[in-house]
Amino acid sequence: MISIFKKEIYELYSSAIGYIIMSVFIIVVGLFLWVFRDTSILSGNVAKLDQLFFMAPYLFLFLIPSITMASISEEFQSGTTEIVFTKPITIGQFLTGKYLAYILLLFVLILLTLTHYYSLNQLASPIGNIDHGSIIGSYAGMFLLGCAFTAIGIFGSSLARSQVAAFIISLFLCFLCYWGMYYISRLSIFSGGADSLFEKMGMEYHYLSLSRGVIEMGDIGYFAFVILLFLSLSHITLNRRLS
Amino acid sequence: MPIQVKHLSKKYGQQAAVDDLSFSAKEGEVIGFLGPNGAGKTTTFKMLMGFIQPTSGEINVNGESVPEDPMIARMAIGYLPESNPLYKEMYVLEFLNFISESHRLGLTKEDLINACKRVGLDAEINKKIKYLSKGYKQRVGIAQAILHDPPILILDEPTTGLDANQLMDIRALIRDLGKEKLILFSSHIMQEIESVCDRVIILDHGSKIADNSLADITSSTESDLKIIMVLDQPTKNLEIYNELAGVLNVQTADQRNIFFDVVKGMDPRADLFRAAVKNGDVIIHLSKEDQTFEQTFQKLTKKP
Asked: Whose CA is closest to A234, among A131, A156, A125, A148?
């Protein structure tokens, strides 16, 4: 597992893709938080980071599948699965190694946004007069959301032969899990009963719940379940594709 | 026996890639797998590595079943896949370090450099794999296969696409490795099998059609001798040659260049000479041509 983890980190940082994604994320977040008038923190009166957490699902929707799209499809396309799976590496170790490497990238990405948190903290009057509880909860939600999208992305890549197909499948599944469940719950046939169940099955519900600043086990458990579900599904598809 | 294969089959739908294959291999052998494209060599190797599951049959490596626990094969065997897939964005040393960590070998940089030297890669260790020539990529492939010093090596067409010098180097390397390891190795090139292996398994349409030492395989097929006779003038009486003892068949297009198929173990050249004198023919060339392994192979794998 360590060998796969290190290889993946090495590939992410030796190719341009890791840097491109980090740069795009930082620039877009920076522009929306400080430059664009409609959304800038400076044009409001309240010291809040809401814009960052509002944008995170949209940015992750595109950025995370673009990181994970190559994860498995590329190994099949270049035939390197024949190197990996003729070494003493199990499918579980292979998936965990890759997953953790992408989570590390996600962690660094989120870490970089702490500069905005620090700036906001310094700008507040008096200094530090911001809702730390809500921000910490939102950060936890953002990290868990990223982890869940990454698991979905790896699953999408395990299904597809090409990177483009992997990207589109992952994007669709992330959309379905985050927004789709909410829209399904709005369908008239589910009104009065099943609608709240569907809403709770969506990620948006739990993400918003965490961003209120209350970290509940139910929400964490939900994300943990989604992550395990998609990693297990990846395990099954990979097992099938290899035999 | 390090490797034992019994009644191994692999089917894709209705088509059998490998069909009821059995063989065993012992320490110190260098076994060549020979067969036309699609004969089932690569599929057999992949099953030996536990990379794909057989439809039926047994594979044992060091007495343990590979389909039940593929890790057995992966620890004991070094494998060079046919297409030699590599992580092309990695540097040679980084890639070998990845292989070392996959086997949990804990090799130092020195050890990795020594491994590169062994396969003649030392001049290229600081290059990205994608910038290496085909011959050097092949060496990286061999280096990753032997890095954990396995007692068994499987090399799937290790010399395809190499130039003459690279070919000689890789063959010498295989011969060298064969002194201490059991090697299974496939090739299209007969001379290579002849020069490197001491035993040959010939596959065709997924089945084994021969399994023996080289000399035995060549002598097991009929009419292993051909004689070529060239006369200065077309002969007027071809029949006289046909009646000689040991001659199976006479072929000629112009009655001047005459080809004889001869019964195994007989050499009728002296009789041919006397018959020519009697016939009034003047021989300007008379030679015998041993059947090559190449011809044997064609004979064995030719469709009826």
From this structure: A156
